[in-house]
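Re: the 245-residue chain
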Amino acid sequence: MSDTAVSEEPFDAVMFDFSGTLFRFEEDDSWLSGLTDEHGRPFDVHQLTEIMRRMTAPVGQMVELDDEHLYAWTNRDLDPVLHRRAYMEVLRKSGVTREEQAADLYGRVIDPACWTPYPDAAESLVGLNKRGVKIAVLSNIAFDIRPAFARLGVDGLVDEFVLSFEVGAVKPQPKIFEHALSALEAEPHRTLMVGDSEEADGAARELGCVFALVDPHPTKERTDGLVAALTAFGLGPVSGRLRSP
């Protein structure tokens, strides 16, 4: 759950998770329309929902894996090769046995253009920038998400992208949070971490950061979750000019 007490000192920095926090992977129906099981039968809507859940869940092991694929799964966010190997196996174990179909769907998952921003993502980043608050995006991920922010026109508002495959550490390991704090030149007690996972993102508390939890609901259902989370900690939208990067 989110921390309830607002820091006695103002926040100098905010760190955001990516998936389920600022952006969400929401499939286009056309991507799944031809998806079939090993018998050539189309998946029903419940099966498709479960497949997508397995492809985007922030923590946990989604299917039973042999030693080779378990290693790939455990280290998937540190190496793009292992990431592909792990998720192709998850798809296979989920009934998507035709490699060309699995490869096409996996390709969508790692394409930043296929990720949908939450309705208040840009507003939240702009508001923090106007306050002079430093911003980091801190993600367990094995592909470059910067193009997603560029498409939204807010890449210049993010001071640091701290991506697990680039820095060699994953949440909830302290190292990745320490890397972000160092890059921002921010003190933990003056830094807010915003994310959708108590286990992964909430671990920032161990370094002294404050944590705000948001629900990874579909973007049409969670229209102001980020603004609400920031406002609860005195970081709501403000008017004024953008600061220089």
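The mean pLDDT is 90.
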